[in-house]
Amino acid sequence: MNLEEIITEVKNDPRNAQYTEKGIPPILQVNKEAKILIIGQAPGRKVEESLIPFNDQSGITLMEWLGIDRETFYSKQIGILPMDFYYPGKGKTGDLPPRPFMAEYHAQIR
Q1: Where exactly are the structural domains of the chain?
Q2: Are 29 and 72 in contact, with CB atoms under 8 Å apart?
Q3: Which CATH architecture has domain 3-106?
Q4: Element (H or E) spanning 49, and its range?
Q5: Which entry of 84, 85, 94, 110 is 20 to 30 Å from 6 by CA?
Q6: Helix (H) or strand (E) holding 64
């Protein structure tokens, strides 16, 4: 199964209906030309609003750590794959962790 098919499955998964009903697609950035793949926990609320991975303070910090600018970060050279493709919600002490069932989709990605 190719990545596009996996993403379609993620969109069609009834456990993600609350997102797809709002028109929120899985939030990731992939390209076969990527030299670096960044694996993250899950998009935050601000990222969910913009639909751009790491489009928040964590992204600014990450770009500083990597020593790259925004243009490079959002280029074909960088892949971004979260453990949960959607914002899992707020918990008592921060955002909730990625939902465990998402591992089913990650196992299919090659």
Answers
A1: 3-106
A2: no
A3: 3-Layer(aba) Sandwich (3.40)
A4: helix 45-50
A5: 94
A6: helix 57-66
Give the whole-angstrom CA distance, residue 27 versus residue 92.
24
Give the pTM.
0.89
Q: What are the structure tokens assigned to 14, written together?
A: 């009834």
The token pair at 25 is 């697609």
Q: What is the pLDDT of residues 85-101, one digit of tens each?
A: 999 999 898 889 999 99
Please, are residues 77 and 35 in contact by the beta-carbon 8 Å criterion? yes
d(CA 71, CA 77): 10
By the 8 A CB rule, do 41 and 83 touch? yes
Predicted confidence at residue 13, as pLDDT, reads 97
